[in-house]
């Protein structure tokens, strides 16, 4: 029997390109301390810790959670380490939720981080393993052809990506934790920025960030004594498929479609565009906003860009997407998924500050990873089921 | 916990010094998936949740688990997750998923190919990256410090350690998947040279390649998949400090804590994940295993230690003893990190609670 679970507290670091003022442990502790404090707790109140991050090669530390056990207050407690590529932040939240839903623990700390300045992600992604086709393109080079396929399929006007970048960067300027603070960015500036991987321009791609995010998830008893509003976890879903196979749709992946179908079913949502008040979606390259709007069923295939173009995904629109600034404003890779989940919780708790969507009650958190093949999602709401 | 969950199937690949058939692990997994599916009468479509354990650093590449998804054939898409840990912890995540009711049947698998590099140096990168890892204290040397402490404290002798190895090798003669086995006396072993004093080769788990898979099912399905399911009566894990200097290396509080949290109680058989001979002695004590308990009838990790699969294999072997009727209550143990830093205990019983 699944037990109810809720987000009790959220914490994150101020994301920067290089946090040379702290160690990896210091970075993680900053987020953990903020999360437990916002839940009115201390680390000693936590029953178990779940750590998530992208490849260990990104910092050059093998299984860093072993060294982080002390800093996270995990000594003498269960400690799990999740790694599901770019979707890992979301998966970390879901695994932590499942420990509460299974009735194993009352309060679990989910923490995800990346300290990219410790190593070099491009190096880590560029190792050529034997008998594998080296892509040698980095993430942008890998995803750009799929974006071009989307533009060709949908007939979207060429400036849609730039519109997303302007919106997300301006939203990021409302979020004091966001890495990039570009409140004065304009469509003209984005369109004039250098083309990196056609059609992805410099201003349409995510930054490299150091950062961490932590979330405290608790059961109903823990929620009932929480000092402030909590975010009830109404549904969680994960789906995976191989990187390549005959019939793989890189633009509108089956794994994403099946994941969200399971999510809406669990949450009792039949009309997502009307029932979801705000969405935090993993958009590392601008064009992924319209692409995921379609994959998630907020728009019919080929129509996602119309929501973006009509400003429906901006604050004040029908479905505000990434009011936090999203991955385009902060990208501590391993934490980026959990940041989406955490921001969705902050929205329904009414604690999102200057980027709060007024009256948000039901929110989506979304993450993806690998070659558009790993998906993790949750729906949180201000009310229990 | 509201529902009973049982282990219904287990398979492992032979532990080999070097498995040339695979670079990614996929080729070690496909045959054992086929074996365990055949035994349970299942197909991959019946699996509600998949969870794997492996390491990018061992594989020498980022996202090494991604190619393993090819082995499960996730078309149409599967509910799947991965831990950067021994797959015993993947089984723990899968167990939680079955307890939530989101899956009825779950599969955990682990794989590791240690032959591609020098394992003891790779594992040095698990230590504090600022203060310890730059000195490259390799995993064998760290274990040697622990063994030395025990010798000096009078907790064991080099002969005690050699006897653990001799007994393990003798047991492994009946284990077709073992990498090391044979009849040898402690005296013969003690005549051999040190690798990292006071450790000799027999005190250290052999380095090799391998994989393991375990299937679990909810009470509603377990009996139809397995004549005598191995019911999980307790499952818990804990971690100790990552700072070697802050730990009493002769105590394993996380193992004792996990056993207590799992409600271990008396068992007839225990499969312990002790990659070094003296660690079996430490674990026997921490887990409160008396003289009457059959420890590592498979030969244990000293006779085959495929990284990220060996802990899961211990649980699988303990479950197999229950499923075959050889034991009514058995314990599977897994460890991770330097000098037994992190420990997991899974208690299996022939009787549902």
Could you describe the 3D structure shown?
The complex is a heterodimer of chains A (385) and B (353). Helices cover 34% and strands 18% of the residues of chain A. With 385 residues, chain A is of the alpha/beta class. Chain A has a domain of 130 residues: Thiolase/Chalcone synthase (Peroxisomal Thiolase, Chain A, domain 1). Chain A has a nine-stranded mixed beta sheet. Chain A has a two-stranded antiparallel sheet with strand order 5-6. Chain A is globular. The relative contact order of chain A is 0.20. The mean pLDDT of chain A is 96. Chain B has 353 residues and is an alpha/beta fold. In chain B, α4 packs across α12. Chain B is built from twelve helices and twelve strands. In chain B, the strands form two sheets. A ten-stranded mixed beta sheet of chain B has the order 3-2-4-7-1-8-12-11-9-10.
Which descriptors would you attach to this protein?
heterodimer, A: 385 residues, alpha/beta, Peroxisomal Thiolase, Chain A, domain 1, nine-stranded mixed β-sheet, 14 helices, 11 strands, 34% helix, globular, B: 353 residues, ten-stranded mixed β-sheet, two-stranded antiparallel ribbon, 20% strand
Architecture blueprint of SSEs:
The complex is a heterodimer of chains A (385) and B (353).
Chain A: E1 6-12, H1 24-38, E2 48-52, H2 65-68, E3 79-82, H3 88-101, E4 107-115, H4 121-125, H5 138-154, H6 160-172, H7 187-192, E5 195-197, E6 200-201, E7 210-218, H8 220-224, E8 231-240, H9 254-267, H10 272-275, E9 278-280, H11 288-295, H12 304-309, H13 326-329, H14 333-349, E10 362-369, E11 374-381
Parallel strand pairs in A: 2-3, 2-4, 9-10
Antiparallel strand pairs in A: 1-7, 1-8, 4-7, 5-6, 8-11, 10-11
Chain B: E1 5-12, H1 26-40, E2 49-53, H2 56-59, H3 64-72, E3 80-83, H4 87-100, E4 105-113, H5 119-122, H6 139-152, H7 158-171, H8 186-190, E5 194-196, E6 199-200, E7 209-218, H9 219-225, E8 230-239, H10 253-261, E9 269-271, H11 277-286, E10 294-295, H12 310-323, E11 329-336, E12 342-349
Parallel strand pairs in B: 2-3, 2-4, 9-10, 9-11
Antiparallel strand pairs in B: 1-7, 1-8, 4-7, 5-6, 8-12, 11-12
Helix pairs in contact in B: 1-3, 4-12, 7-11
């Amino acid at each position: 029997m699944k037990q109810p679970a809720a987000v009790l507290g959220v914490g994150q670091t101020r994301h920067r390109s290089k946090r040379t003022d702290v160690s990896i442990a210091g970075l993680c502790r900053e987020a953990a301390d903020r999360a437990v404090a916002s839940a009115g707790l201390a680390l000693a109140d936590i029953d178990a810790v779940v750590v998530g991050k992208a490849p260990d090669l990104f910092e050059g530390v093998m299984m860093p959670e072993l060294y982080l056990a002390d800093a996270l207050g995990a000594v003498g407690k269960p400690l799990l380490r999740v790694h599901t590529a770019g979707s890992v932040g979301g998966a970390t939240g879901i695994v932590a939720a499942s420990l509460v839903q299974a009735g194993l623990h009352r309060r679990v700390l989910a923490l995800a981080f990346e300290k990219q300045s410790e190593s070099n992600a491009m190096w880590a992604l560029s190792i050529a393993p034997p008998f594998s086709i080296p892509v040698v393109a980095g993430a942008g080079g890998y995803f750009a052809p799929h974006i071009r396929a989307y533009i060709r399929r949908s007939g979207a006007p060429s400036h849609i990506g730039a519109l997303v970048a302007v919106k997300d960067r301006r939203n990021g300027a409302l979020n004091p934790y966001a890495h990039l603070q570009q409140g004065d960015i304009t469509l003209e500036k984005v369109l004039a920025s250098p083309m990196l991987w056609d059609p992805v321009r410099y201003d349409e791609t995510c930054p490299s960030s150091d950062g961490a995010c932590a979330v405290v998830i608790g059961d109903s008893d823990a929620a009932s004594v929480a000092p402030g509003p909590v975010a009830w976890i109404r549904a969680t879903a994960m789906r995976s498929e191989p990187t390549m196979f005959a019939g793989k749709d890189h633009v509108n992946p089956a794994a994403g479609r099946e994941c969200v179908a399971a999510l809406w079913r669990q949450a009792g949502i039949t009309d997502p565009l009307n029932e979801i008040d705000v969405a935090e979606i993993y958009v590392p390259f601008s064009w992924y906003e319209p692409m995921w709007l379609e994959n998630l069923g907020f728009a019919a295939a080929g129509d996602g860009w119309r929501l973006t173009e009509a400003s429906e995904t901006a604050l004040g629109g029908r479905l505000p997407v990434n009011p936090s600034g999203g991955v385009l404003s902060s990208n501590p890779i391993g934490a980026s998924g959990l940041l989406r989940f955490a921001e969705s919780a902050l929205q329904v708790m009414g604690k999102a500050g200057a980027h709060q969507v007024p009256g948000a009650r039901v929110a989506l958190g979304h993450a993806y990873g690998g070659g558009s093949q790993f998906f993790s999602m949750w729906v949180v709401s201000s009310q229990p089921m | 916990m509201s529902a009973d969950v049982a282990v219904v199937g287990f398979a492992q690949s032979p532990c080999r010094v070097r498995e040339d058939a695979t670079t990614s692990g996929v080729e070690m997994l496909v045959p054992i998936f086929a074996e365990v599916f055949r035994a349970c009468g299942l197909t991959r479509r019946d699996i509600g949740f998949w969870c794997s354990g492996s390491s990018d650093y061992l594989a020498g590449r980022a996202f090494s688990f991604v190619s393993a998804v090819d082995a499960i054939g996730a078309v149409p898409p599967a509910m799947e997750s991965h831990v950067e840990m021994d797959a015993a912890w993947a089984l723990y995540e899968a167990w939680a998923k079955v307890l939530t009711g989101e899956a009825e049947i779950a599969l955990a698998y682990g794989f590791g190919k240690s032959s591609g590099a020098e394992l003891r140096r790779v594992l040095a990168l698990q230590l504090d990256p600022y203060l310890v890892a730059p000195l490259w204290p390799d995993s064998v040397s760290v274990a040697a410090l622990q063994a030395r402490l025990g010798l000096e404290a009078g907790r064991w002798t080099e002969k005690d350690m050699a006897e653990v190895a001799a007994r393990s090798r003798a047991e492994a003669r009946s284990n077709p998947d073992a990498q090391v086995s044979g009849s040898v006396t402690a005296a013969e072993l003690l005549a051999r040279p040190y690798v990292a004093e006071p450790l000799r080769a027999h005190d250290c788990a052999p380095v090799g390649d391998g994989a393991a898979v375990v299937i679990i099912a909810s009470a509603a399905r377990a009996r139809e998949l397995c004549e005598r399911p191995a019911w999980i009566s307790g499952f818990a894990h804990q971690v100790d400090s990552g700072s070697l200097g802050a730990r009493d290396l002769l105590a394993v509080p996380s193992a004792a804590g996990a056993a207590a949290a799992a409600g271990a109680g008396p068992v007839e058989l225990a499969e312990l994940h002790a990659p070094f001979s003296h660690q079996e002695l430490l674990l026997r004590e921490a887990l409160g295993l008396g003289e009457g308990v059959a420890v590592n009838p498979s030969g244990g990790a000293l006779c085959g230690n495929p990284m990220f699969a060996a802990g899961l294999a211990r649980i699988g072997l303990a479950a197999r003893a229950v499923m075959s009727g050889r034991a009514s209550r058995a314990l599977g143990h897994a460890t991770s990190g330097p000098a037994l830093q992190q420990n997991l205990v899974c208690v299996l019983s022939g009787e549902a609670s």
